[in-house]
Amino acid sequence: MAGRKSEDHLDRTLDWLHRHQRGWGLALTIGSLTLALPLLFLLLLPSILGLFAPPVDMSQDLYAVNRPIAFTFIDPQGDTVGHRGALVGERLKLEDMPPYLPAAFIAMEDRTFWSNSGISVRGLLRAVWLNMRAGHVVAGGSTITQQVAKIIYTSQERTFSRKLEELMDAASLQKSLSKKQILELYLNRLYLGSGAYGVDGAAHVYFGKSARKLTVAEAAMLATLTTAPSVFSPRRDLESAQMRARRVLNAMVETGAITKEQADDAKAHPAVISDPAVVDSRNFFLDTAADQAMTLASVNGQRPTSDLVVHVTIDPKLQDAARHALVRVLNTRGRKAHASQGAVVMMKPDGAVVALVGGKNYDASSFNRATQAERQPGSSFKPFVYLAALENGISPWDVRTDGPVDINGWSPTNYGHRQYGTITLAEALAHSVNTITAALGQEVGISTVIEAAKRVGITSPLQQNAALALGTSDVNPLEMTAAYAAFANGGYRAYPYFVTEVTDLGGHVLYQRGDPKPQRVIASHVDKDLVAMLYGVVTSGTGRGAAIPGHEAAGKTGTTQDYHDAWFVGFTHDYVTTVWVGNDDSSPMKNVTGGTIPATIWHDVMAYAEKGLPSTPLDRSPPQPATDITSLDQTMGVDTESGDGVTLPSGVSEDQPSEDAEHGATEDNSDRGGGFFDWLFGRERQRQQQQQQQQQQQMAPQRQYPPPPGAYDQRPRVYPPPAQSYPPPDQPPPGYYAQPRPPAVIHAPPPNDNGDEDDEQGPRHPDGGPDDNDGY
Fold this sequence. Notes:
By secondary structure, the chain is α+β, with helices and mostly antiparallel strands. The chain has 23 helices and 16 strands. It has helices spanning 2-19, 21-52, 100-109, 121-134, 144-152, 160-176, 179-189, 198-207, 216-222, 238-254, 260-268, 277-297, 316-336, 382-391, 425-430, 434-444, 446-456, 477-488, 524-540, 597-610, 659-662, 675-681, 683-699, and strands spanning 71-74, 80-84, 308-312, 341-347, 353-357, 399-401, 405-407, 422-424, 499-504, 509-512, 554-559, 565-571, 576-582, 636-638, 647-649, 703-705. Strands 2-1-3-9-10 form a 5-stranded mixed β-sheet, covered by helices on one side. Strands 5-4-13-12-11 form a 5-stranded antiparallel β-sheet, with helices on both faces. 46% of the residues are buried.
């Protein structure tokens, strides 16, 4: 019975198939044609393109078409200090290269190069399959001929239209040039990272030699850089580059380019790169100079198309010294303090930039933190508040009483809730007193502070709120250097410049810097007063770690909330220098203030720069006679941002220490009424501090101010992409600003929450607000 049912089911199935065989046949035919026609088209594509592709215009120089402009940089002494572009490499024939060099690229990029018609059908089929699986263009199946076409004629975007253009151009090249000519074009124009174009340029950059002298291992390593050269750079990760080179060597054995014995020897003696320190130290500067040269040499918006010779302001010795100081200090003190990045800008007071370091390692990231990273300056912004005050008739030696401040609910406090009593404004700046500075900003008006900052060189947008006085609006190190240059040069606006002259290879002058008319932006007497105040920061305030024996220096420290950023900006008679230290993801450092690591780097760079120069004093107001000021706070305070651990009583400077300060301020307990155990556990001292705070609040009632326009309205941070330079810089490193930055204004913690100053992570910031940790 069961067998009968099976036979009936089979008969019905056969009958159904017989009745629908015509439809199935049609569907099968359509499906076959759907698959066959594209395959047939791909098989015939090289022949079709060969018939219709126009020949290449041989009157043009294919080594120059669509090639990035090459720059040669000349320093003020007439020495060549660097290159950008294809000029780094010499144009070589195949006969000039060891035979295994082109063979390495052929083995990795196009094994059928010598036999194919410029277009690989197999490669296209593979690319079609991968793209169908991904749903978008992820592979191109390019031959070396197609890559040459892309280098010369088309953009680097991955679209189907661009791919069709590339195929047509490849057919044109195949029709007009020999295989040897195509391969030479490829090897001389290929970008291989670190600003190197062509195998000879790359050989000089990575191995310090001509491509003529490359070993098998070195040739294999260069062949690994055809895709993502910046990511796979051997200067970023040599060990990984050596592992990739082993795969190239295996491919070369498979293609018969080298023997197994040669490959084994190359694996046993892998390629190593030359010391990049000197070149790296200049790359950030040269990138910026190339951008400026292109702008200056443009005519009516038309950028130059020929190679350029650019005369720049760099001082190679100072550039190398700046990079060395930054790397050395970050590699030693920075590791323990969780400080991984930094930037240094050094210029003459007229704006000529002599050194610029935009990060610790250019190969790891060419993102320029000196010109492109916007960070909060903290207390290094305070001089603009005091500039506005001086211009409104306030004297550096006017006194203010440090007391509680309330600005529409915002109550900034000093580090550790310290109180300085009645002190001069010069002392308030020297010791970075937050409360007096915030009140002073309200006294003169935040809009007046913004106007003063922009007048001297701050170009970034500044938020008009009360917290701005304590440095909460983002700026970059280059503009901070330019602004302080106005203080250093007597009150004239300094516009940063890197380029003094641009010519083409024929010697035609495309740009030449003239002598701009000085533009005074600060009155002479005001500037002298401000310089005197900044001089006090270095001699007796938070910037003592930057002092240079035998040379007068002035400047200001800056530290932002939770140690996210630390700055020192300062100057001598000869140079203005800014140092920023922090992390790309804005993660907090461990107790790094402007007076510690940044001041150390600043000191090392400036001490080297000033060596051998005459000791020229700063143009500053003379010191004022000592005033009889009674401080309301007789407690001890540590000028923490200076980083030297010097303990100073309020109102006592480092150059005239009191006996108590010098010997640790041992207190006399004979008059204590609280008994031995109260003294031992600090209870009596706490009671005295509370009594002093109450006394001060009675003598100096809280100052109330109306909210300034836009106060506390912190807009979301927007970080524009880095400006394009040549070669294009990396995007900000992964995780850059990944962690949320602190809001502009946070209210103070509950009373008596002074933090644990013995904690390993350092004392907690007392107000948790926008003012920095150097307000002591």
